[in-house]
C-alpha cells in the first residue's frame, strides 16, 4: 500500500508540474518528483544505493538550475489559482477509490483474464525487481565507457565555458 501511495503522489506531482507557471514552483515539483522516484526505486530494489546516487545527481542539477533561475527571474510573484488546487485535491481521491475497489469501474461482463491482469498490476509489489543487472560482470565495460564518456564531456564543457560571458556574469558599473 505504501508503494501505491508513492506512485499516487508521483502522479499528482506530474499534474502539479504541468499546471505550474512559475519556474521556482516547477523546480520544487521536480525535486519532490525525484524524491518520490528515488523512494520507489529504493523500495523496489534490494538496496537504496542506486536511489541515493540518483537523488544526489538530480539534486546537483537542480542546484545549477536554481542559480540560473534566480539570476533570470528573481522577482516574479506566484499566481495561485484555486481551480488547480481543487483539481489536485479531487484527483487523488478518485484514484484512491480505484485502489480501494479496483472492480468498481469495470463492467460486469469482463472476462477472467482481464481481472487477473488487473490483480497482477495491483499486486506488483510481490514481484522481484533488481537493478543490480546494470553492474554485472558482463556489463562492466559498458558502464566504464559510460563513466569515461561523461567525465570527458564534463572536462570539455568546463574548458569551453567562459566565466565572464554568461547569464551569471557580474555586471559592470
UniProtKB/TrEMBL annotation:
What Gene Ontology terms describe what this protein does at the molecular function level?
NADH dehydrogenase (ubiquinone) activity
The entry's cellular-component GO terms read: mitochondrial membrane
Q: Which residues cross the membrane?
A: 52-72, 84-106, 141-164
Entry-linked InterPro entries: ComplexI_Subunit6
Q: Where in the cell is it found?
A: Mitochondrion membrane
Query: Mind listing the UniProt keywords for this protein, alphabetically?
Result: Electron transport, Membrane, Mitochondrion, NAD, Respiratory chain, Translocase, Transmembrane, Transmembrane helix, Transport
EC number(s) on file: 7.1.1.2
The record gives the membrane topology as: Multi-pass membrane protein
**NAD found in the keyword field:** yes
Catalytic function, reaction form: a ubiquinone + NADH + 5 H(+)(in) = a ubiquinol + NAD(+) + 4 H(+)(out)
The secretion signal range is none
The first-level EC class reads translocase
Where is the major localization of this protein? mitochondrion
What does the similarity note say? Belongs to the complex I subunit 6 family.
Q: What is this protein called?
A: NADH-ubiquinone oxidoreductase chain 6
- What is the species listed in this Swiss-Prot or TrEMBL entry? Petrotettix serratus
Q: What is the name of the gene encoding this protein?
A: ND6
